[in-house]
Write a structure and sequence with these properties.
The complex is a heterodimer of chains A (about 180) and B (about 200). Chain A is α+β, with helices and mostly antiparallel strands and about 180 residues long. Helices cover about 50% and strands about 15% of the residues of chain A. Chain A contains 6 helices and 4 strands. The termini of chain A are far apart. Chain B is mainly α. Chain B is about 75% helix and about 0% strand. In chain B, helix 3 crosses helix 5, helix 7 crosses helix 10 and helix 8 packs across helix 10. Chain B is globular and about 55 Å long. Classes of the chains: A alpha+beta (about 180), B mainly alpha (about 200). The interface between A and B is large, with 40 and 52 residues.
Chain lengths: ~180, ~200
Amino acid sequence: MNENLELNLELELQAWLDGELSAPKARRTDPKIVGEEEASRLITELQAIKSALAGNEMARTVPETRALYWSKIERQIQRPAPGPRLVQAPRQAAWSRCFAPLVGVAALACLLLLAVEPYAPPAFNEISSTGEGMEAVTFHDQSAGMTVVWLTDTAPARTTESPDARTPNTEDSEVEVE
Amino acid sequence: MSLQQDKSALSDADLARAAQKGDMGAFEELVARHRDQIYARAYSMVRNEDEALDLSQEAWVKGWQRLAQFQGEASFATWMTRIVINLCVDQLRKQKRQRAESVEVLEEESGGVERFMPVTMPNPAAGLERTELRRRIDRALDQLSAEHRTVLVLHEFEGLGYREIAGQMGCSIGTVMSRLFYARRRMASLLAGLKRENEE
């Protein structure tokens, strides 16, 4: 029984057998030097297993024909990589970041207008609000209890300096009530 | 001479270079040459035919994708074997996470009763034909835990050192040493048992 051998010594003996110890440590650990009968017996057992396993792994062959085995690999290799969607995503996010505050402000303004005059008869059906580069049109149908907000990008093309290109008015917001 | 015959005359290194330039035919020839070895390594670790088949094919796909990294320092077969070993270790790690903490798992880590088993002196290979010895070794490997088997396979069949095994398995060298020790002791016991069984 090797219960008298300490685990560390057992592991050192094994490392000695596997040639994993430094030269000075290997000299100290040599079973002949350790001198315990149990150590020698353990080394014999470990050595026997090591020798029995060496070069005796069971050979195995793929249980498929060459063509079938390759076909699955080929399919995986030729599968197209995920493409441009990932590349375009950040651009879309940047667009959203620019316009989200404007859209939010326009929508809030429309809701405030509706809240200020809740009892007014269907005095208006449509509110148009124009801001810089954006027009918000709100349509309200009281009988149907429905409100629809349209947001339109009216930003002029930046390539021209023609004053015509700056319409509609970009200085002030205007609210039209019909 | 057909194109396929042309390829079969080329060395692994030549085929690998051609494959690096995008020649899929060259890569297919490499697969044909080494598929059994890669599959066998996967099987020796996961001990399941379907899983080994999937993992070996996944390894080839990864091999193709990483061909640019193959510098020819080791042989192509060795390089591919490392890829399949990595995949198998990952797979076994996933399976281990899925297993509930059990007495069996704890015993695997601590070595169970193997440490206290009597030393078996008879040589397990004595008087056996090689085919029979291989069959017995294979049966015994089936009965080891995945952790012990992996360390044993990597050390005895792949010839990796403690440090390399620790790197592959993501554990300490001390853990590798104790797993290897218990795996060997258990193998000694199992092979002695199989020998007795056969003699009775």
